[in-house]
From TrEMBL:
Pfam families: BPD_transp_2. This is Branched-chain amino acid ABC transporter permease. The keyword Transport does not apply. InterPro entries: ABC_transp_permease, LivM-like. Coiled coil: none annotated. The keyword NAD does not apply.
Amino acid sequence: MNSGAASARPAPLATPVAEPLAHGELPSWLQRLGRHIGVRHVVVLLALLLYPAVANSFFTFQIGAQSLALGLVALSLTFLGGYGGMVSLAQMTVAGLAGYLVAIFGSSSLAAISLGWPWWLAVAFAIVLATLFATAVGWLSVRTEGIYTIMITLAIGVAFFYLAQQNYTLFNGFQGFNKIFPPKVLGIDFRAATPFYYLTLACALAGYFFVKLLVRAPFGVALQGVRDNPRRMHSLGFNVTAHRVAAYAVAGLLAAVGGVLLVWYNNRISPGSMNTGAMINILVIAVLGGMNRPIGAFVGALVFVLLQNFAIDLVSRERFNLVIGGVFLAIVLFSPNGLVGIWTQLRARLGARKAIHTPRRQQ
């Protein structure tokens, strides 16, 4: 019996050995990335690179840099929701924690609290600890689904908000920290509008292409399978909980980098930077742009920042949330996939019309 059972077992699969690259051949991951880069990507990249040359310092810093930094935080929610099927309201909390840790480990207006570490060491510790915090949030919330996951992450965010607001020993209470400036590296002062814009652009591009590659990697494909049918993935031998927690860790990394950029953008951090309104704003940005494409996070952030800066010319600042709510409601009603979904529908219709009106070649 035992020998027959042993012989019936399938032989273990041999681990594939990567073949050496030929002369001039690119790695497989770079080849996959190149196949998904089209003309529109090159045009958008050139426009982003040349943007400071045609825009003044206000549009470069206030619109461009802020949109990219907020988009990076929203990208973490887009990755979780669009590819993992998990909606977390704690992404701005992760970003806020990273900003607080930069102020605590680095330099700020409060020398009695800030440790004065070099900027690169403070940023590294801030990103690592914020990512670990996001992983712990994921470990607590992945055992629930739907509204319960949203409520758990919201409760964690609100709890951390009140902790920061009431703790003066470590977080300086409701006042927070001021004078948290970007560093000077190799003679480049990132306090200036143009250098800081290119810094946020580099981080945003890195996060965007990282997500694009990750969702096509085995982990990303398995995560989408967990999103669609977790029971089937579990029956196939995949650890559903581990994949979800790992997704929270990846999203936490993106949010932490965005939080560092935001604290440098504002030159300060306080509990108001991660209150309930800020948490909801990230959700609004992600839904506005579209949860099914990584680029949607940055499109939504751009629309949100433009409305935030110019809607007050039409309505009072107190009614800004009414404008955001109206735009949000219109997008949800007419395009559940956000602004990127509208663009995709227009491209599909134009492609269909072109195919109809294009005459067939004579045989």
